[in-house]
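Changelog-linked ticket: flavin-adenine dinucleotide example.
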Amino acid sequence: MLQQDDHDVVVIGAGIAGLAAAAALVAAGRDNVCLEARERIGGRLLSKAGPPGALDLGATWFWDGEGRVADLAARLGVDTFEQHLAGDTLVQDATGVRRLPGNLIDAPARRFALGADTLARTLAAQLPADTVRLDSPVTAVHRRATGGLEVRTSGSVLYAQHVVVAVPPALALARIDFGSELSPELVRLARTTPVWMGAVAKVVAHYPSAFWRDEGLAGAAAGRIGPLQELHDMSGPDGRPAALFGFAAALAVGPGFEQAVITQLAQLFGPAAAEPETLQVQDWSSERWTAPPAVHHLADHSLFGHPLYRRPALGGRLHWASTETADRYAGHIEGALAAAERAVTASLTTGEANSCSR
Ligand SMILES: Cc1cc2nc3c(=O)[nH]c(=O)nc-3n(C[C@H](O)[C@H](O)[C@H](O)COP(=O)(O)OP(=O)(O)OC[C@H]3O[C@@H](n4cnc5c(N)ncnc54)[C@H](O)[C@@H]3O)c2cc1C
């Protein structure tokens, strides 16, 4: 039997944007519920716990100037530390491996001591109980004849004055039925906006120690052959847990991929690199709640932060909040927080009368 409930705002997605939106709505005194498709929160913030510390399979860093992330971490008491930078860079091409002095790849950045997803988990823990509903994929959003919006999941119907879509736009269009109520321009834009890192696999190799540091290497490398195109030291504070990670095109993942990764790691960092304690491959393109079917074909990053995303749709009641919709820092955690801020402000101030787009 379908359940039915009414809210000021329904937030779709409990990634960092949706959670930040939910928290801001609570702070503004608005009743809201945050519907999450997966059985976990965090979205592209995902860390694998393992003693000691945790290894990030999604986002890792935040950078200078990303004040929202720094402020949120400080406010939540989430410990951060500096990315390890010291050491030389390796470059691998068809002629072999070259060592270049200094770290030419990593910019100064900060990391989350217990994994990036502590930001999401700590934020979610501060929300009123029952704000986040897991395992609740939204299937449809429609306008109601009587005003407001109707939000459907497979097991429930919710009514809201406003909806915040904290889901990458292309994914939202692939998984949620908006009927014919969005303007053709918005539909075209949303369908073609890339999902940041949606076509990427992150490979994390966990070692007993950060042996490359002993050899004066930064753990930073560029691969022009081999599956990993860019590698970094992803060890925790004081080098524990010790880890290297690399990005690969998700299309490269398949039979033989892991062996090719091990071979490349050994070519770059020597025989010790061929024996990680664990090797994890996180293929984001195969994640139903991150990547739409067309993810490998979406490449026009100039669509990030498009002005249409700042214009509430569906009679001024639907607001976009994923990182892809931010006009600055799009793709980053900072962009997700900025987009959530904008969407919440719009939901608090926009009425039917001043909406310009269907
Ligand atoms: C490998 C990788 C490395 C990265 N590295 C960095 C980095 O170092 N620094 C950085 O700043 N950023 C990085 N990013 C990007 C960063 O992770 C994102 O910017 C940020 O997490 C996006 O948050 P979001 O809330 O906008 O979207 P998401 O995290 O994608 O959250 C969307 C949420 O909506 C849910 N959802 C989807 N569809 C539905 C539906 N129909 N109904 C209900 N729920 C739904 C999803 O399950 C998900 O929880 C990286 C990302 C990846 C994948």
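Closing comment: Example verified and attached. Confidence is low (pLDDT under 50) at residues 352-358. The radius of gyration is 21 Å.
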